[in-house]
Specification:
By secondary structure, the protein is mainly alpha-helical. It contains 14 helices and two strands, in the order αααααααααααββααα. The chain binds fe (ii) ion (FE2) (2 copies). One fe (ii) ion binds near residues 64, 94, 97, 173 and 177.
Length: about 325
């Protein structure tokens, strides 16, 4: 993911007094955005644009690395060597996505240490989807199909984001995400086509548990997402939360039919007049509860990240010591 469009910005910043020079720079910036130009790291940008991007890209990076945890849980229990190798490769990709994204955010002047401190201190958010548990092997397939599928829907428009380093990172990430989505769907197809009735039930149960949280991945409804408009104005966001969610539902319905599973929504039906599916209400109380830290696995996920950081201290120290020695050697040569 796994952005969640929660980029709510501080009003005081916009209200701050601006010098005439700044106003001119901002007018030039707006004109570039309107012309569809990309903004590079060294270009002038409004402080609020910078802050919005740091928040969004770092949330996205955190989501990639926290997203490794629910799947890592199944590496030792994957049913075949082939599935284990695929799952390992996918989890490794997610770690790589985190690294590209931290690097993209660093171009805006915030260090990786600062971003990680915000995550570990519980101040920074990551996608709420990763606070749900992976209870069966079918969950791994469903995560690929629905969670990576929702991520693709969210992220493809980001390849045209106005901030060039983020857009470039997203091009590579999106290519890998499509492999993730397919491996998940393929694992589910194998279970549905060649599996036992118990395996079919396992897939249906996983779909039942992940469907609604997947729809929440697009963030709150447009009406409750007041700063989305500013992000759209700046070309950071290209489609609204509700538009993306609708596209995702419309894409999933035929895929569910091919799989032979039922999406757990009695109100889901084709609306001929709209040319789209209608679907039932989302439990936003649950969404805000999980975002607020009270989901099924929030504490476990954060504790795992903090432990990994602490236990990795010697690696960081060794790398720094090595770099220091190399620099001394080069100086002496
Ligand atoms: Fe990813
Ligand atoms: Fe992925």
């Amino acid at each position: 993911m796994y952005t969640q469009a929660m980029d709510i910005g501080p009003r005081e910043e916009r209200a701050a007094l601006r010098s005439a020079e700044e106003a001119q720079l901002e007018a030039g910036f707006d004109a570039r955005i309107d012309a569809g130009s990309f903004i590079e790291a060294k270009d002038w940008m409004p402080a609020h644009y910078r802050k919005t991007l740091v928040r969004q890209i770092s949330q996205h990076a955190h989501s990639e690395i926290v997203g490794m945890l629910p799947e890592g849980n199944w590496v030792t229990r994957a049913p075949t060597l082939k599935r284990k190798a695929i799952l390992l490769a996918k989890i490794q990709d997610e770690g790589g996505h985190g690294l590209y994204l931290y690097a993209a955010a660093e171009t805006l002047g915030t260090s990786r240490d600062e971003m990680l401190a915000a995550l570990h201190g519980g101040k920074a958010k990551y996608s709420s989807i990763f606070n749900y548990p992976t209870l069966s092997w079918a969950d791994i397939g469903v995560i690929g199909w629905l969670v990576d599928g929702a991520a693709i829907m969210n992220q493809v428009p980001l390849t045209r984001c106005s901030y060039a380093p983020y857009a470039r990172a997203m091009v590579r990430i999106c290519r890998e995400e499509s492999f993730h989505q397919r491996q998940g769907y393929d694992a589910l197809l194998a279970m549905m086509r060649e599996g036992t009735p118990a395996q079919h039930e396992m897939v249906q149960d996983a779909v039942n548990r992940w469907w609604w949280p997947s729809l929440m991945m697009f963030g709150p409804p447009d009406a409750a997402s007041p700063n989305s408009a500013q992000s759209m104005r700046w070309g950071i966001k290209r489609l609204s939360n509700d538009e993306l969610r609708q596209k995702f539902v419309d894409a999933c319905v035929p895929q569910a039919q091919v799989l032979g599973v039922t999406l757990p929504d009695p109100l889901l039906k084709w609306n001929e007049a709209r040319g789209q599916h209608d679907f039932g209400p989302i439990d936003w109380d649950e969404f805000w509860r999980v975002v607020g830290g009270d989901g099924p696995c929030n504490r476990e996920r954060l504790a795992a990240r903090v432990r990994a950081w602490d236990e990795g201290a010697w690696v960081r120290e060794a790398a720094l010591a090595h770099a220091h020695k190399q620099a001394l050697k080069e100086k002496a040569a």
